[in-house]
């Protein structure tokens, strides 16, 4: 480059060129240099520099060559040199990018890993509870809540657990020190009572929240867990509505392939009562260690709200009927995501949580 | 319990395999968890003591398969001598013992049981003891009636008195433990002393031994609550108490006594004295229950034919009278203590009709739907925390008392029966949960961990909603920015000051947050001492906020503001400060100027130390001016800036120079 730029400052005589062959070689050199310069234009700054270097009125190489070579060319060569310089000027002008033209930056390695902005993860139980809430809201259920520190009345008595009844043994209860009447709710069902106390029928509600049972912690037990509960009370609620609602919920939550079965059961606050089993999600019902080779997995408890419960909230059991069902939201999360250890849910382990974004 | 299917099949013809039987039983509410070698593993609910025996299971099967249930008619070959001449029974407390049926068998020979009985008991999970004791267990498993056999010769005056204990009376029970009674306990006594805890366990001395010759067999009905209380009081749980506390068949005591007498004679010989000593002072007929056709249909949702209703209930042992309008009058059998109301009958019908036969239906709904009042705001907090890069945690809301007291002055609610000291009280602070999570992650090599929890703390009168954040590594300014971003969601005016008022935050690197002047939380660097105590080796940032005051203000109302039509002008001013000077002082001074064109006043970056002046820092602040009506002239902006500089000088701040740049 600098060589050719120096040459433009000299006359043909000084360059020792006196015939057409010499001119061809010189012009070829200038054209190669010009082409390289055009190829090097990758930004607006480079374009301006190029314009000054090649087409500038004062220092432009084309101008210098015209001044020094054309003028010094002997008569017979003038036409050849002139033709070349006209051609190169046109070439240089054509190489100049238009005003405001876009330039490509150099390529990059697009296989390098992406740089991620740290968005926090969602807790799987929260995810599941949100999904449950959405399913039931779309079916006409409102969301209700209640305190976790409850009284014996709401947790047991008004739910038709008589004092000293063996059914109370099935719900290992944490009692508060100093106040024999206060306890940590063992289920979300107290919210049934609280909701019906403040509202006349019809009622449709879904309840999600923490509950406590005095179970020693292991991979499938936790003394704190989350329950989901749903209940409907109206003048026209039947066992067929309970079945239909549960089947609809299961289909939406687990997908259409899951089969269900209802087994009559006993809960003090529902009658008739039923437990719902679903076909094992692992083996699909053919039998595996997870379902103890039965093909079925117990999922939730349900039933028609016992008329005695309506008595506690002042509803007329001859006119009103209702259903209720509930299960562990954590259990649903474990089943849905295939988590094997419930304790993982409470550790805040980043490696675990980051799977739920 | 274990159910031996061959035993059940003695009472009813079952046209199905054991596996099929198990399935049908499960689907009618008697959960069978396993089938192996002719034995069903049954999980019978607390409400169905009548099915906790082989005959009870046979009765359910007779209904399921619509086959007759064979009656049990014991062949009791009595001698001429009257039992009542040899022994007597008195119920002193009939409120706790409704019926006491006794048989006397004289001249038995205690020895091993025959193989068929040993095998059957073993199949049902019972160890053979001796022939007489085995018979009582056998009848318990067959009919569900707990029996007790006394050595008649060891009963003072050969007399049985069922009465409440006198406080202080004692008895050594069969398990070799000395029991001391209170006046609440129902006991079996002879003329002098206790010989058994009624319905729970007999006494050691009066029990059957190898030398026993004469036997008094007890077949009684005890009040369930009393048995339950007594068994719990002594921490005992026996086959007998398990059934009595759930309710046995008051109509079945005589049959069980006769059946046992028959079997004892069969396996241990002896002479069955004439007559059952049956003390049943006040038999109460159970009230009939009306089942209305309309009610049955209203609860179930489909119409089940009258023939099927009749069939089901009769097979289950109900006496059924048909009434007008398709209604029925029902007399429940004595063994079904769980049935006293119309709904109980409806359940029986539904149970045996089969839930699988009911069609799915969705009731219509025309009401409104609401979420909880704070649901949307809580969601906004969660979403924002996540967007800021915090992972969501849920931590156990029980913890150790010392830890709660470290982070809260509130008196924690303590459990009366905690599982361990690690989870003895309800949390009064949201901080331990998030700090535990960060520490857990650090201990597992995750050096960058930021978590949040939206949850409740538990106070004596309420359960306030809280937001807790914690993270490493981090800087105060970033945490403050995160807090500001969350607070920005809500209405209300937020301010910060240094009066954290607690000792677990770094006194110079923490702040209190107030909403409209009332404190709602604090945040900053954890006090290094507390952090070290906790197990952290590096600074930890944490925040705790009460959410209810924010929820009360509501989400910030979004309102359009016209976009500026004229350019803004910025002026940067660098001042020399000492660490005692705060930005707030400068800002207050600038705001006091009340320049309407001042759009914002902030810093360009954090203060930095001045090289040649130890203890002094340079801070560059930036004022942005803009007018809604015109393009500001340089001279105007210069005047504003001059005012600001003067206000700084009034604060005794030295200028380091000023520069300007146009946006």
SSE order and pairing:
The complex is a heterodimer of chains A (357) and B (663).
Chain A: H1 2-8, H2 12-15, H3 20-39, H4 44-55, H5 61-72, H6 75-95, H7 124-138, E1 142-144, E2 149-151, H8 152-155, E3 182-184, H9 190-198, E4 203-212, E5 224-234, H10 239-254, E6 260-267, E7 270-279, E8 296-305, H11 307-313, E9 321-328, H12 329-337, H13 350-353
Parallel strand pairs in A: 1-4
Antiparallel strand pairs in A: 2-3, 4-5, 5-9, 6-7, 7-8, 8-9
Helix pairs in contact in A: 3-6, 5-6, 7-12
Chain B: E1 2-4, H1 5-9, H2 18-27, E2 31-36, E3 39-43, H3 54-64, E4 78-82, H4 83-86, E5 88-91, E6 97-106, H5 115-123, H6 131-143, E7 147-151, E8 159-164, E9 170-172, E10 178-180, E11 186-189, E12 194-197, E13 201-202, E14 215-222, H7 224-234, H8 239-244, H9 253-268, E15 271-274, E16 277-279, E17 289-291, H10 293-300, H11 306-315, E18 319-322, E19 328-331, H12 342-353, H13 375-387, E20 391-392, E21 398-399, H14 401-407, E22 425-426, H15 431-442, E23 449-456, E24 465-472, H16 476-487, E25 494-497, E26 505-515, E27 518-526, H17 528-534, E28 541-546, H18 548-553, E29 569-577, H19 583-592, E30 598-603, E31 608-609, E32 617-625, H20 634-650, E33 654-662
Parallel strand pairs in B: 4-15, 5-8, 20-23
Antiparallel strand pairs in B: 1-3, 2-3, 6-14, 6-15, 6-16, 7-14, 8-11, 9-10, 11-12, 12-13, 17-19, 18-19, 21-22, 23-24, 24-28, 25-26, 26-27, 27-28, 29-32, 29-33, 30-32, 31-32
Helix pairs in contact in B: 3-11, 5-6, 6-9, 11-12
